[in-house]
Fold this sequence. Notes:
Layout (H helix, E strand, L loop, with lengths): L2 H16 L3 H11 L6 H17 L5 H14 L13 E3 L5 E3 L15 H28 L2 E3 L8 H17 L7 H6 L6 E6 L4 H14 L3 E7 L11 E6 L5 E8 H9 L1 H8 L9
Parallel strand pairs: 4-7
Antiparallel strand pairs: 1-2, 3-4, 5-6, 6-7
Helix pairs in contact: 1-3, 1-4, 2-3, 2-5, 3-4, 5-8
Amino acid sequence: MDTNDVNNYMKKVRRYLKNTKLNDLSRMIEITKMDNLGRGKAFLVAGVVAWSAFTCSFGNVNSASAAQLGLMSTATALTDSMRLGGIPYRNRNGKVVISGSASQGDNILEGCQQRAQVAYNMARANEPRITMDMLDIANRLGTSMEGLEYSVKTASSIKSKIDRKTNKALEAGETPKQDFEYVSETGDLLRYTEVVNHDEMADKVRDTVALLEEKGYTLDEIDNKYLNKDGRYKAVHLNATSPSGQTFEIQVHSQETLAASRATHKMYEEWRAPETSKERK
C-alpha cells in the first residue's frame, strides 16, 4: 500500500467525520473506554473505528489497513496492532487491546480448501461490527469484555478442531466431512467473554439476550454449563446470529468461573488432544 492509498482513505474518513454527529463519536469513545487519549486523538480514533466497524467487509481489507497506517503517525501507538478494522478497547485491568488481534499472524488455514479459507475470512470481516455491538451491550449493562484480542478464533485452533473431528469420524468408521463444512458449522469462529458479578449472572444473561434482540440479533441457543454438575467448566453460553447472518458465541462468566476455567485450561487441552492416550485421559 502506498502513500496515495493512505491519503485517499484518510480523506474519506474526514468526510465521514463531517457527516457524523458529535454525540455518535462521543458514544464510540465511551463504549471503547478510550476517553483518556485527549479530545483530538480520541475523536480521530473514534472516527476510524466507526468507519471500520460500519464499512469493513471481505472486499475492502485495504481500507482498514490504510486506517492503521494513517493513525500510526497521527493518533496513538495502539494502532500498531490494528487488524482488519479491529476495535481498540480498554479492558477492566486498564490494558488497551485490539479485538481479534490474536488472529493477525495466525489466519491461514494450512492444507485446507479455498472454500474453508473464504468462510473464515468472512467471519473475520464481520467481527468489527459485531464487536462494537457487544461493547455497547457491556457498557449499557455495566459488565466488561475479557480477552477481546481473541474474539476471532485463530486458524491453527480451527485446523486442530478440523483434525479432531476428522479423526473422530474415521475412528467411528464414518466418512469425514469436507474441511469447509467443518469451518462453516463452527459456531465460535467469533467468540466473546462477558464478565459479570457472580450474584447477577442470571439477570445479566437475560439483559444481554434482550439487548441482542433489540439490536436485531437472533438467539439460537442458551447452553447453561452450570447444569453439568460433574463438569469443570461453569458459564452460560449464548449462541447467536448477527443481522448479517454471522454466527458467534458469547460466554458469560463471573470473575470466579473465569479464573477456574483458566486454571484448568491446559489440562483440558491435553485431554481433548487426539494424541493423548486413553490411560492419560
